[in-house]
Amino acid sequence: MQISYLEIVTPDVDAVCTTYAKLHGVTFVEGDPALGGARTTSLEGGTTLGVRAPMHAGEKPVVRPYVLVEDIAAAVAAATEAGAVVAVPPMKIEGHGTCAIYFQGGIECARWQN
After folding, report:
1. Is 56 found in the same domain as 3?
2. Which residues, at least 6 apart from 72, have a Cβ–Cβ distance to it below 8 Å?
3. Are residues 74 and 57 in the same domain?
4. Residue-range definition of the domain harbouring residue 87
5. For 33-87, what is each residue's pLDDT tens digit?
6. What is the pLDDT of residue 84?
7. Domain check: are 53 and 12 in the same one?
8. SS (H, E, C) the chain
9. pTM
10. 81 and 106 belong to one structural domain
11. What's the confidence (pLDDT) of residue 46?
12. What is the pLDDT of residue 42?
């Protein structure tokens, strides 16, 4: 299992980015509009870490790992068959890939296809 994109949603983007930079020696670029304004950095192994503010009043802070899959439609279908509730169906993010989010067991689960 590989994490393709690790998303942190927080109301204090600057503080989180500063902490990660100091603790892990990473450098964040300015916000990427395609990723909800997330400030991003590349991690070892090919994972991208993105830190962004909530996009609407109902979005709560969360750490959301997007697990890399070869077929996102099949992954979401399998999760649904296992009782998951889809929150965001497969959605193409121009220049990045396709993502999906579902709820299962009280947590947000996310998948990513390059």
Report:
1. yes
2. 90, 98, 99, 100, 111, 112, 113
3. no
4. 69-114
5. 999 999 999 998 999 999 999 999 999 999 999 999 999 999 999 999 999 999 9
6. 97
7. yes
8. CCEEEEEEECCCHHHHHHHHHHHHCCCCCCCEHHHCCEEEEECHHHCEEEEECCCCCCCCCEEEEEEECCCHHHHHHHHHHCCCEEEEEEEEECCCEEEEEEEECCEEEEEEEC
9. 0.92
10. yes
11. 92
12. 96
Say yes or no: 1 and 54 in one domain.
Answer: yes
Q: Identify residue 53 by its one-letter amino acid code.
A: A
pLDDT at 101: 97
Say if residue 12 is in the same domain as residue 41. yes
Q: How far apart are the C-alpha atoms of 54 and 36, rounded to whole Å? A: 9
Q: Is the dihedral of CA 34, 46, 53, 64 positive or negative?
A: positive
Question: 27 and 50, same structural domain?
Answer: yes
